[in-house]
Write a structure and sequence with these properties.
There is one protein chain. By secondary structure, the protein is α+β, with helices and mostly antiparallel strands. 35% of the residues lie in helices and 17% in strands. It is built from 17 helices and 18 strands. The strands form five sheets. It has an eight-stranded mixed beta sheet with strand order 6-14-13-8-9-12-11-10, sandwiched between helices. A three-stranded antiparallel beta sheet has the order 2-3-4, with no helix packed on it. The chain is globular and about 70 Å long.
């Protein structure tokens, strides 16, 4: 018996009204030919969202903190050009984002999701991260969309190239073992307390790793208290010390603790490897205001490292997906106060060397940035993630790209 299909508009209503996140994504992929997926429909959903007033939240968090200065419409970080608006532009809330995963193939979505990490640091919802190997079809080589190019400029002359990516979790984990000797580390990590995130997870996603591999293993604490962090860190250190040579360093008190592991269990192994020690560096990061991997990832300065492994799954942001698919990356802490970007240029250079292309806002003063003398920057000042007790990282929307997205692409174009 012939069975008719639902009208596409009915299917669309079901997807938009009853499904979110991964379920919406899977249905959108499976029923692509039946759905009206386009920029216009996406903009209709985005324009229906409301802006969020963050003023009271700002005042609660920065009360009696002299590093922040209240202004009429924004909060300023003292002695810098870094500021955050009190109003979060419409559509950049996590509830709206969760409603529109079905539109992942549209050009507008490609830009929209790359702007979330510009949001003020006080907005810390538990964003739904993408479980990559649950929806592997989203990893596809792609070109920059028209809208991405209208907001960002590529640094350099060569066109970006999408890297070859592993297809399965098994391939990912094998890379983690072969490139970072993770099988010797993992048994001693409590993944209920620490999530691995950043460059090492990215490198394990690549079929061909750039050489030499210079990334550390960075574990971000998602547990309850600093005392528990110290206890958990001490347990890891002690267990590893029972088998290997372990050197500890405190890079930043109450923030970043480091272990250098030399994989030698006998004196003979130590002597054999004296010229080229078989070692890996682990960093354990704590921040008093953050207890979820979602908040850490969204606060990372580069979208190409917004990826984590929690002992079971590989999770990432949408901006990471766009970065990987296009072979490009965005830096979210740029301003035109170029003297403060010394550490930033080292981060940018690191991922340019790994064959990703740097994207910067059109109004960023790139020529001044490139010609800035090193000795007039903060390039030699250590930066261990924490800008203050209430703030992790220094992401900010200096170029007002979220506001521009709403005013130009949503309000006017559609």
């Amino acid at each position: 018996m012939h069975r008719g299909t639902l009208p596409s508009i009915v299917t669309q209503d079901i997807v938009d009204s009853y499904l979110t996140c991964h379920d919406q994504l899977i249905v959108s992929h499976t029923l692509a030919e039946y759905l009206h997926i386009n920029d216009g429909l996406l903009s209709t959903i985005l324009i229906s969202a409301h802006q969020i007033d963050l003023c009271n939240l700002f005042r609660t968090l920065i009360k009696n903190n002299s590093r922040y200065i209240e202004q009429e419409e924004s909060l300023l970080f003292r002695d810098t050009l870094i500021s955050w608006p009190y109003l979060l532009p419409r559509s950049f809330d996590f509830i709206t984002l969760n409603k529109v995963w079905a539109y992942y193939r549209t050009d507008l979505f490609c830009l929209y999701v790359r702007l979330f990490s510009y949001s003020p640091f006080v907005y810390r919802p538990k964003y739904t991260l993408i479980n990559i190997f649950k929806v592997p079809f989203i990893l596809q080589p792609d070109c920059l969309s028209f809208y991405e190019q209208s907001f960002f400029q590529l640094y350099g002359e060569n066109s970006p190239t999408s890297p070859e990516i592993v297809c399965t979790f098994q391939e990912f984990y094998l890379n983690l073992i072969q490139r970072f000797q993770f099988d010797k580390i993992a048994p001693f990590i409590d993944f209920n307390k620490f999530n691995l995130a950043g460059g090492s997870v990215l490198i394990s996603m690549l079929r061909h790793a750039p050489q030499p591999i210079t990334s550390d293993l960075d574990f971000f604490y998602v547990g309850p208290t600093f005392n528990n962090f110290i206890q958990s860190f001490a347990t890891v250190r002690q267990n590893l010390s029972n088998l290997y040579i372990v050197k500890q360093a405190i890079l930043l008190k109450r923030r970043v603790y480091q272990l250098e592991i030399i994989f030698a269990s006998t004196m003979a192994e130590v002597l054999r490897k004296s010229n080229k020690p078989n070692k890996i560096v682990l960093q354990f990061i704590y921040h008093p205001s953050i207890s979820s991997i979602q908040t850490y990832l969204m606060a990372f300065d580069l979208d190409i490292v917004q990826i984590s492994y929690n002992g079971k799954e590989v999770l990432c942001t949408w901006s990471f997906i766009r970065a990987l698919n296009t072979g490009t990356f965005i830096c979210f802490n740029l301003t035109n106060d170029l003297s403060t970007l010394g550490r930033t240029v080292l981060r940018i250079a690191k991922y340019c060397e790994r064959n990703f292309r740097f994207l910067y806002p059109h109004n960023f003063q790139i020529e001044r940035f490139l010609s800035s003398p090193v000795n007039q920057s903060n390039i030699n000042q250590p930066n261990y993630y924490s800008i203050s007790d209430v703030q992790f990282g220094s992401n900010n929307d200096f170029f007002q790209l979220q506001k521009k997205f709403v005013n130009i692409l949503i309000n006017q174009n559609f």
